[in-house]
Specification:
Layout: E1 2-4, E2 7-15, H1 25-38, E3 44-51, H2 53-57, H3 61-64, E4 69-72
Parallel strand pairs: 2-3, 3-4
Antiparallel strand pairs: 1-2
Length: about 70
């Protein structure tokens, strides 16, 4: 979590190295972020994917919609 001027931003980071994708996995990160807001853990959140480029390239459009950004290892 990042704090700045009284605002708290939760960082939900999925770090994929070799694991296979699981159904609705990225969507569940978005749901956890919403739960964190409801519980008062943070005011906003970002869902970030860190993965090899080939993993990021294979994301379905509906999966990409749940991400705020991604970082590739290359």
């Amino acid at each position: 979590m990042l704090e700045n001027g009284g605002s708290r931003c939760g960082l939900l980071i999925e770090n994929k190295i070799r694991a296979l994708r699981k159904a609705r996995q990225i969507e569940r990160y978005r749901m956890r972020g919403d739960e964190g807001i409801a519980k008062g853990l943070w005011d906003k959140f970002l869902v970030i994917l860190a993965a090899p480029q080939r993993y990021a390239d294979a994301l379905l459009t509906e999966e990409q919609e749940f991400l705020d950004g991604y970082l590739t290892y290359e």
